[in-house]
Each structure stands twice: as C-alpha cells, then as structure tokens.
Amino acid sequence: MENQNSQSSEEIVEGLIGEYSTRVYSFCLRLCGNSTDADDLFQQTFLCTFRNRAKLDMSREPLSYIFKICVLQYKNMRRKNARRMAIAPEIYIDDENTPEIASQDDTEKTVLDKFLREEIRKATMSLEDKYRIPVLLYYNQSRSVSEIADILKCPVGTVKSRLFTARNKIKEKLEVLGYDGKEA
Questions:
Q1: Of residues 88 and 97, which shows the higher confidence score?
Q2: What is the mean pLDDT of residues 100-117?
Q3: I need a surface site. Which of 33, 63, 125, 142 has the fewest CB within 10 A?
Q4: CA distances from 63 to 3, 21, 34, 37, 147 (A)
Q5: Cβ density class 112-125: b for 16+ within 10 Å, e for less
Q6: Which of the listed CATH numbers 1.10.510.10, 2.60.40.10, 1.10.1740.10, 1.20.272.10 matches domain 1-98?
Q7: Which has the closest alpha carbon to 31: 170, 127, 107, 119?
Q8: pLDDT for 34-67, tens place per residue?
Q9: Integer Cα distance of 100 and 124 in angstroms
C-alpha cells in the first residue's frame, strides 16, 4: 500500500512537470538572467519538488508551491555563487545578450518598443532580489499578491510595498533615459 502511495505521488510530480515546466523555466530564466543558471535552477526546483512530494497539497495551488521551492533554490544558489566568487571570481559570457539582426520590416515604433522592453528588463534585473522576485512573480507569472506572500513567506502588505517600491525604482531608471510614461 505504501508503494502505491509513493507511485501515485511520483505520477503527480511527473504530471506537474509536464503541466508547469514551461512556466517554471520561464520564471527561472527571468530570475537568473541566463540559460545556464536557469537550467540548473529548473532542475533543482523539480528535484526538490520530487523529494518533498509528500508535502505537496493538491488542494492548494501546486504552481505556487513549485514557485516557492524555486525561490528558495534560487536563494541557495545565490549564496553558493557568492561564496565561490569570493574565493575565485570568474568571467561569465552570456550568449543570450548577443545582438539580433534587425529585419527590414522593423519600423521605428517596433524598435522603440523593443528598446523600452529591454530597458524595463534591465531595470528589473538590476533590482535587489527582495524587489525583483515579487515583480517577476506578479507580472511575468501572473501570481496574485496573496500567492506571492505565501511563496515568499511574508505579509501581503510587504509584497504590496515591495511591488510599489520596485515600480518606482524602474520608473526612475526609465525617466533617466527620457521615458515619461505617456507613450504607451
């Protein structure tokens, strides 16, 4: 009987991987900023989800539980990398930041929109984790404020405050570039 329970929980985790892998990987990629670290984070997230499958409550939102694990794994990864970099710094080359060849059909608006999106992405990535993680969960993963509070284990008011502060910090960075917010 115990074998049946563990088999069914394994099947549940496999189903979660199939259902949510694209969204979780997208979150990992935005969180890490490069595919190499995102791949590692993605694998660690689902490995930890599998290890903790007994704690998985399917009556609650399983994606929020997976995001919670992802955030915890990300924080662990950052601590490990900080220790490594203190001992032996390395130069990292990111293939994702190579320039794209523009097609002839690009209009000025398309170019400006792309520039703005890139500047918003850069501004978001430059935020401290306590601001960046709620922004990514809210805007990129469509998580509610209460779900984010549960994922980050903090009060709803704290999440609201961090989102507000993050938006202001992003706005300030865009204003330096001459964006006044009236274009879009």
A1: 88
A2: 66
A3: 142
A4: 25, 10, 22, 21, 10
A5: eeeeeeebbeebbe
A6: 1.10.1740.10
A7: 127
A8: 899 999 999 999 999 888 888 887 778 888 899 9
A9: 21
